Each structure stands twice: as C-alpha cells, then as structure tokens.
Amino acid sequence: xxxxxxxxxxxxxxxxxxxxxxxxxxxxxxxxxxxxxxxxxxxxxxxxxxxxxxxxxxxxxxxxxxxxxxxxxxxxxxxxxxxxxxxxxxxxxxxxxxxxxxxxxxxxxxxxxxxxxxxxxxxxxxxxxxxxxxxxxxxxxxxxxxxxxxxxxxxxxxxxxxxxxxxxxxxxxxxxxxxxxxxxxxxxxxxxxxxxxxxxxxxxxxxxxxxxxxxxxxxxxxxxxxxxxxxxxxxxxxxxxxxxxxxxxxxxxxxxxxxxxxxxxxxxxxxxxx
Length: 274
Fold this sequence. Notes:
Blueprint: E1 5-10, H1 22-32, H2 34-37, E2 40-45, H3 48-62, H4 69-87, H5 95-113, E3 121-126, H6 128-145, E4 174-180, H7 184-188, E5 207-212, H8 227-232, E6 233-237, H9 259-273
Parallel strand pairs: 1-2, 1-3, 3-4, 4-5, 5-6
C-alpha cells in the first residue's frame, strides 16, 4: 500500500518503555480503519535510553549512601531528563544532539516510505517531548523566520548540515504539531513575556494543537505565554484518564490512552488521506 502521510511520536520524561506509543496507536488505528492506517508511515522516536542508562549508573553508585530511595529515584529519573538535555546543548555528541539524531533517523525512515517527497507529516509529542521537538524545529529552521540567522547553528545535530540540506528532516512538510501534557512553560516561565520566543512555521500551513488537563500539573496551556504563542498555538482543555486519575496529577500519564486524544489524531490523519 502506498504511504501518503507520516506520523512520528515523541515520549515524555522519566522511565519509558520503547512501546510507549502503543495505546495511542491502537486507538488511532481503531478509529481510522485498517485500510486507511496502511497508508500512514509511522515511527516512534525513543531517546530515553540515552538518558536512562547514566541515571541507572548514578543511582546504583549512591543508593547505599542515602535514604528516601524511592523519592530520590523519582526525582532523578524524571527531572534529570530535561536538565541533561539542556545542559548538554553545547556539548558535541551528547544527549541534546543524540536525541535530535533519533528524530532525524525516524524522519529519514518515513521519507523512504512516502510516495510524495512533499507528503504531510504529523508530530505527536507528550510532555518533555514537546520541548525536545520544539528545540529540534528551532535549530533546523530558525533561518526561515529570523532574518538575522543566516548560518547553521553551532550546536546540536544541525551544526553538521548546510541550511538547504534535508528539508524533509527539517520538518518542512509538517502540517500538524500535536502536543499533550506539554511543559514548555517550565522552561521559559522565568523569562519576560517578550523573550519567550516560539518556533515559527516550517511549513506555512502548519498548525499547533496543544492539549492539557487542568488537573495535570505538568501539562500547561501555551497561548498565555505571549502574543506570539497565542498566534501560533490553539490550546484545548481535556479531561483524560479514568476514575482514579482524571481528577489528579496522574492525568499526566493518561493522555494517549484517552479517546479525547486518539480521536483528533485519527481525524487529522484522515483529512490528509482524503
């Protein structure tokens, strides 16, 4: 079957299995139908092992010297993910660049499967994945919306490529960025409103839909960051999870198993397959 649209997923922070996207995929496939799904080229980006192995090594080294072990594991495995990514931005071949390489490789696989090199791509990113893909898009395409940026970045994956190389991997055919439980405000909240600069649109028709649950302390609306975000993003408030999770912070882990997320992803895919 000819592949007509690409879909990639990115996971969030903390211990994550490689099959993290299974719930989302099962729900989307059920709603889309087998024939339509066969026209979708799908790849899940898994960058957690880059971060998880050093975390395990560190915890094993210190666990005999400390108390509150469960709490320490929680904080280490969760919040050293974003810290390590941001800290390593300017370190060659470290976590920041290696995670971008995972995205590049997933997009290259999709490119090989698609019939049309201009075929639309949807990116679905959860939690920290929203920040990871935002950084990737920024580094790959800043020259498109910033007149003063006429050179490739000096850090990350895109330092290796000229500005006109790999337009597909730069997500210049991306038509939808779909974020859930996004915590970009945690990264930019300490900046004045006029310094919170979002990505531009790699494709002129790109839309950004951001879904958050008001009970999820790690999932935030984005339009209130400033006017630039308000122009770029559409926020959707949803109530995800079941009886034990929909009313508390556990909602952060329930987005992709919820019909209120699966249905719009399926609807968007269907619209590109018409």
